[in-house]
UniProtKB/TrEMBL annotation:
Pfam families: Connexin. PROSITE patterns: CONNEXINS_2. GO terms for biological process: cell-cell signaling. It is a multi-pass membrane protein. Residues 49-117 form the Connexin cysteine-rich domain. The keyword Zinc-finger does not apply. The gene is Gjb3. It is found in: Cell junction, Gap junction; Cell membrane. This is Gap junction protein. It comes from Lanius ludovicianus. GO terms for cellular component: connexin complex.
Amino acid sequence: MHVAYREDREKKNREKNGENCPKLYSNTGKKHGGLWWTYLLSLFFKLIIEILFLYLLHKMWDSFDLPRLVKCTNVDPCPNTVDCYIARPTEKRVFTYFMVGASSVCIILTVCEIFYLIFKRVFQRAKKWKRSTKRSVSYSKASTCHCHVKSEEKDKSQPRCV
């Protein structure tokens, strides 16, 4: 949705300012800026939903195990305890285990993706910061270049550094 929003904004900008106007985004689908944050927040939201689903399923059925027989008490119109049999409990148990396994794999992959995105961003920022500090430090040629020392003494000409 965020990419669609960017593309729509880009389209409106072209309609308003003409086809030759400068673009608002270099690449509307690239994950940087607001799109990166939107994607990261959607991953956290997905993670919370998956964990909540597993927690509620665990609370509803003790340890994801469906019983064959449930004793129903105080169920209208019956005044006594009634035995309620669950149809096909083994199939439902297998399906529940499959869902729990798939949900667990999704949780693991989502956590890995969150860490990947965060560490990738940290390393990019560190690399960018390292490059900017290298550029900001400047040295004079006289202090770093020693290849012309002998030639300067002989003919006092310009340095011949390569």
